[in-house]
Amino acid sequence: MDRQAFYAMMSAPPALDYELYLDTGSLLGCQKGFDEFVNRDELQFQIVHQVEELWMKLIAYTLLDVDDYLQARDTHRVLTLMGRCHRLLRLMTAQLDLLETMSPKEYQQIRLQLGNGSGQESPGFRTLLKMPPHLWTSFVSHYLTPEGRTVRSIYDQDYAHDAAYAVAEALIEFDELFGKFRWHHLFLIHRSIGMGSASLKGRSVDLLQAGAKHRFFPELWDVRVAMTDAWGGDYGRVRDSLSAGAAA
């Protein structure tokens, strides 16, 4: 194929309504020029990370609506929009697989172009880290406190699979999926530069594991431990073996 001819086609200014509405000229101009890439994988590297930023922008925008609907106790809207965020997080995690098609050597060539940049500087990522505490405050203030309920009660004593429980499960699923995204990113680092290496800021990437262990809604995780321990106290942590009974 005539590479230069197709480069020209991919760089043509927008002319049709679809192109103008999506501002494809600006969108497709966000990457380096075709003659500026350090290797053939750099375009993929830029696009994957730019798309991740777009998904995180949409998640953040959606979570603002979720917070409004939590305060209005509009549970159907909350669950629908949290479902959207869950799908977006799965997309973000899945598309990281594209970066595994780069060899470690090719990534090192791209890495030299980053200056001292790090994924920890992502504006979308930093924004998302700050939003869950606000969601939790709205959930507690509008789903638990007015009815004198607690996290423990909606999961155990007063369990009814009701609105409060459904919202709590949507929140913990967001927490879980965000954690999976961070762990997947860690494995990507492990595969590309190794876990014992220094980051571009001179810090070992092992430190990223601490962030991956962070939980937005620890109360929702801790209640499972508390309930299991309490139930174990009732029926015993060590029980008779089923196989021993069958043998008798």
| Percent of residues in beta strands | under 5%
What CATH architecture label applies? Up-down Bundle
Q: What average pLDDT do the residues reach? A: 90
User: How many E-type strands?
Assistant: 0
CATH class: Mainly Alpha
Q: Report Rg.
A: 24 Å
Distance between the termini: 76 Å
Shape: globular
Tally of helical runs: 13
Low-confidence stretches: none
Work out the helicity level.
55-70%
Structural class: mainly alpha
- Taken together, the total number of domains comes to 1
Question: SSE string, helix = H, strand = E?
Answer: HHHHHHHHHHHHH
Major sheet, described briefly?
A: none
Account of the protein in words:
By secondary structure, the protein is mainly alpha-helical. The chain has one domain (42-106, 119-233): Methane Monooxygenase Hydroxylase, Chain G, domain 1. It is 65% helix and 0% strand. It contains 13 helices and no strands. The chain has helices spanning 3-10, 17-22, 24-27, 42-71, 75-95, 104-111, 123-130, 132-144, 151-155, 163-192, 208-212, 218-235, 242-247. Helix 4 runs antiparallel to helix 5 (75-95) and helix 8 (132-144) packs antiparallel against helix 10. It starts with a helix and ends with a helix. One of its GO terms (biological process) is L-tryptophan catabolic process to kynurenine.
